[in-house]
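S1.2 Input.
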Amino acid sequence: MKTHCSLLAAIGGLAVLASLTSAAHAQNVTTDPVGAITITLKGNSDTLVSLPFHRPVALETQVSSITGNVINISASANITGNQFIYSAGNQTNHYYVQFTSGNRAGMFYTITANTPTTITVDGAGDTGLTGNVGTSDTFRVIPYCTLNTLFPNGQGINQSAGFTGGQRKSAIFVVDNVSSGFNLAALTSYYYYNGSSSPGAGWRQAGDTGNLTNDVVIYPDNYFFVRNSIAGDTQLTLVGAVPQSKFATPLSTIAGNTTQDNFIGVSVPVSVTLASSNLQQSGAFLASTGFIGAQRGDQLFVFDNTVATINRASVATYYYYGGSNSGGPGWRLAGDPNGNTAIHDNDAIFQPGNGYIIRKKATTSPQSVIWTFAPAYLP
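S1.3 Output.
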């Protein structure tokens, strides 16, 4: 729901701050390599952003047993009751479990309760946890990124002096991954208010001026977009731990007979080609039987953040042709000037920090299939 320095350093715009490969066994945590990437948020424009890094791991352990959505662990993990449960003004982190081995490797689940020997998670519709998570499967507990950890005290965006209209200089829009359909509007938006009106400076949700939203969660497998409403670029620097797990996310249709947009952030800090993404091979992306119209299966929409625009549209559409004509199976680019024979398997489409839409073709009843792949830097 989730290294080699030379590999990371080769990625444009990515700097490796530290590479610590030895295990720090104190408190059951391994120290991960740390990286950073700077994203330009253009003025008078929308910029899609995803998270190639995560916050420091709080716990690393293994499953003793699992019943439903309750994971049993050893008391040697040394945790306390409700240690991983959010408490406004007291414990400001929301935590998730991410499996690092087994059939659910890479998948993440929000923690809803914990005791010294159990961790309860929200399955978010995954009814197969018991059958797919086994004894000795390993997992990590990681705090989610939030508005205020990504943009502390409004850094990286234009701060707002008021609550309405032209007083809002930048806004963070959260995409809608819960409604059925396509071409969906953003679910909600947030802005950073720098004034003194109660309860003071901090993040606010549009339409709610009286409450702070500093601790709102940003999910690792979605993107959000930043709208700078005035001229002049800002810079967002993302710093964090390099993921040491497979990438995994469900691709779904939410309602029967309805085409569905899935808003995707690929949470790895390296470029990934269409072929190495395992998107089609994993069974999560429906192949096309032809090149036009209803022959198309699922489609991947790609965006270009370098051009300033509001309500950003995709600049390229890819689909996987599974037939034998025109050069046989492979990834195709819609409207390719080189024709249908041009295969794009080796195009490095997935870039750190960007966002994508995967449009699932309608299915008779709702379906969900896990897309998973191991980034090249993992053994």
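S1.4 Remarks. The helical segments are 5-9, 129-132, 147-150.
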